[in-house]
Amino acid sequence: MKLNNKYFLLRHGQTIYQKNSVRINYPADADSTLSITEEGKEMIKNAAENLKKEKISIIFASPALRTKQSSEIAAKILGIKKINYDKRLLDIKMGEFVGKTYEEYENFFSEKSERFTKRPKGGENWNDILVRLKSFLSDIEKEYQNKNILVISHADPLCLMAGL
């Protein structure tokens, strides 16, 4: 995909869950109470300070609470008044693995490449995420030209987006 804009990818700040848990405690699309830690806030502040020189003009973020909190911190530092939330930037849906351990989720796959094709019951695989991300980028590319755009999302979507 040829891009007319320059994209900067930023993962949300560390959450209480990531610091203290080995369980998948939330569905990807839930606007839960999963908030970022003080360390996570500092991570985002530092990242935003480093991005000032890039003259970011637009922020897009996942509507999950942890990315909302992260994008609000970044927007304030970058002087961006409006944050654009897009559900296509949500984290991977883990389906039947919500409430289970990451080890159980990892063991669901025989090999890493299965993440593209094998889907847990009620969940997504990486190809599902790629469809969402391509739709997102296609829409953004139609609407904007020559902009520096910050995308704040989650690990899986961001890793996949970096490869597009």
Summarize the structure in short:
With 164 residues, the chain is α/β, with parallel strands linked by helices. The protein is built from six helices and four strands.
Describe this structure in words.
With 164 residues, the protein is an alpha/beta fold. The protein has helices at residues 16-20, 38-51, 65-78, 102-107, 126-143, 155-162, and strands at residues 6-11, 58-61, 83-85, 148-153. Helix 2 packs across helix 3. The longest helix is centred in the C-terminal third of the chain and has 18 residues, at 126-143. It starts with 5 loop residues before the first strand and ends with a helix. The model has no long low-confidence stretch (mean pLDDT 91).
